[in-house]
Specification:
- This protein has a single domain, classed as Rossmann fold.
- It is 45% helix and 19% strand.
- The chain is built from five helices and five strands.
- It has helices spanning 12-24, 35-45, 61-70, 88-98, 110-122; strands at 4-8, 28-32, 49-53, 78-83, 102-105.
- A five-stranded parallel β-sheet has the order 2-1-3-4-5, with helices on both faces.
- Helix 4 (88-98) links the parallel strand 4 and strand 5 (102-105).
- The radius of gyration is 13 Å and the shape is globular.
- The model is unreliable at 125-130 (pLDDT under 50).
């Protein structure tokens, strides 16, 4: 069974890169360019993971993460927040504040992202680290 991932980002290049990397690694990928569309996709598809930018139109990534984490019907959905706007020291507390399971900076390191996804979907059995 393929792992379902929703990607939420208004940057088409980032979405294209993520779709390419994730589908090449046999993930099922759904994408949205704003937070409200992403929330609708998460409700409809019940993905294993949401990867969301923090800065999104219509509903920012932090509020999107909060809504998912507060919804008992979506409790199994893991959330990775990503951003290029905030540095590593700032994204960590922001991710914690909204209930994200992990975070990643932009530009995306494909290997690092795949390691994080493996840990979130298969537990900590992988050899990689955050």
């Amino acid at each position: 069974m393929s792992v379902k991932i929703v990607v939420a980002d208004d940057d088409k290049l980032t979405v294209s890169l993520l779709e390419h990397v994730l589908t090449a690694n046999l993930f099922s990928v759904y994408s949205a360019s704003d937070g409200l569309t992403a929330l609708d996709l998460v409700w409809r598809e019940k993905p294993d993971v949401l990867i969301t930018d923090l800065v999104l139109p219509r509903l920012d990534g932090m509020e999107l993460c909060r809504r998912i984490k507060e919804d008992s019907a979506l409790q199994k959905t893991k959330v990775i927040v990503m951003t290029a706007v905030y540095g590593g020291s700032a994204i960590r507390p922001m991710a914690r504040e909204c209930g994200a399971d992990d975070y990643i900076g932009k530009p995306i390191n494909s290997t690092g992202l795949l390691e994080k996804l493996y840990k979130l979907t298969h537990g900590d059995a992988s050899a990689g680290s955050k």
